[in-house]
What we know:
Layout: H1 5-36, H2 40-44, H3 58-65, H4 67-95, H5 106-118, H6 123-132, H7 150-162, H8 165-173, H9 178-189, H10 191-206, H11 210-215, H12 224-243, H13 254-284
Amino acid sequence: xxxxxxxxxxxxxxxxxxxxxxxxxxxxxxxxxxxxxxxxxxxxxxxxxxxxxxxxxxxxxxxxxxxxxxxxxxxxxxxxxxxxxxxxxxxxxxxxxxxxxxxxxxxxxxxxxxxxxxxxxxxxxxxxxxxxxxxxxxxxxxxxxxxxxxxxxxxxxxxxxxxxxxxxxxxxxxxxxxxxxxxxxxxxxxxxxxxxxxxxxxxxxxxxxxxxxxxxxxxxxxxxxxxxxxxxxxxxxxxxxxxxxxxxxxxxxxxxxxxxxxxxxxxxxxxxxxxxxxxxxxxxxxxxxxx
Length: 291
C-alpha cells in the first residue's frame, strides 16, 4: 500500500500527541520522585520541579526503618497474589458456562449478573452484611467481596465466544467433558486475555483502600495503601505542629517522606507492567469489531 505524504504527516502528528499525553501523565510522578530525593528546605522554598535539589536519601531511610511499612508491603504482595488467582478462577468459572446455549436459564443469569454492574446496596448495607457474615477484622473481607468483576467476566466471555465451536465439538466427540474442554482448549488459547485480567485484578487489589478502611481495625491486616494513608496523616499532624512551633524540626520536612512513601508503595506494581505488556494490548481489544 502506497502512503501519501499527508498520511505520513497525520501519523506523525498522532504519534506526537500520544507522546505528549504520556509525558504529561508522567510529570506528576517525576515530580514526586524528585521531591522524595530533595532536602526539606528545597521543598519548602519550592525549588523542586522535576529534578532533585540538595540530593538526600533521608526520606527513604525513614521509610525503610519502619518495620510496619515493610511488613505491610509483604502482606499486600501476598494478598494481591491470592486475590488475583482466586478472582481469575471465579471469573473463568462464571464466564465459561455462559457460552453454552444448552445452559438452562442462561439469559436470566446474564441479566442478574449485569444488574450488579449498575446497582449496589451501598456502604451501610454492605457493612451490616460483612458484620453478619463475621468478616469484620478478618483478612477474608479483602478477598471474598470483590473476587469477581462483572466487567472482566464479560471480557473473558467475549473471548470464549470467539473460540471456534468446531474445537469444542471435536473435543466433545472424543469424549471430553466441559472441564476437559475448558482446561485443554479454552485456557491455553486465553493466555493474552487472562494475563490482562490478572493485571486488572492485581492493580485493583494493590490499590485497594476503602474496604480495608471500613472493615479492618487490626494493623497487621492493613494493606499498603491504608498504611500509606496513615503515614501521610501522621506526617501531616507533625507538619502542622512544626509550623505552629509545637514540635521541632524542619518546616514541611514531611513532604519528602510522603513522596518517598508514595514511590515505595507504587514501584512494585509498576514493575509488573513490563512482564505483561505483550499480552496487554491484545487482551484489552478482545471483543472489539475487526475490519
